[in-house]
Amino acid sequence: MIVRLMGEGQLDVAAADLSALNTLDAELEKAIEADDETAFRAALHALLENVRKVGQPLPADSLAPSELILPPADAHIDEVRSMLGDEGLIPD
User: Fold this and answer.
1) C-beta of residue 25 within 8 angstroms of C-beta of residue 88
2) Which segments constitute the PspA-associated domain (predicted)?
3) Which of 18, 20, 16, 2 lies closest to 56, judged by CA?
């Protein structure tokens, strides 16, 4: 899956890593639903760090379409709330 980290570029994330990302995504959703800024910030950073850790960066000139777009680390809780779909940021 090609993931775009807003402001950072694209990474190729293996299907085998999506389960762990979905768990982190669920934590992020829970924090947003509770309107808990502290938990939101921690969950967003954990999700982004995990994507950076497991993803393989694509070349800057890559034209591959992103299947998933994640917000920047400094995104506001309301920005991320507006990005959530029925399945969170990362579809199952």
Assistant:
1) yes
2) 1-92
3) 2
* Annotated domain spans of the chain: 2-83
The vertex-37 CA angle with 69 and 41, nearest 5°, equals 45
SS3 label, residue 65: coil
Residue 84 reports pLDDT greater than 90:
no
- DSSP helix/strand/coil, 35: coil
Q: State yes or no: pLDDT of 43 exceeds 90.
A: yes
In angstroms, the CA 25 to CA 83 distance is 12
Tens of pLDDT, residue by residue over 12-28, are 999 999 999 999 999 99
- Greater confidence, 82 or 48? 48
89 contact partners, CB below 8 Å, separation of at least 6: 25, 28, 47, 68, 70, 71, 80, 83
**What's the CA gap between 8 and 52, in Å, rounded?**
10
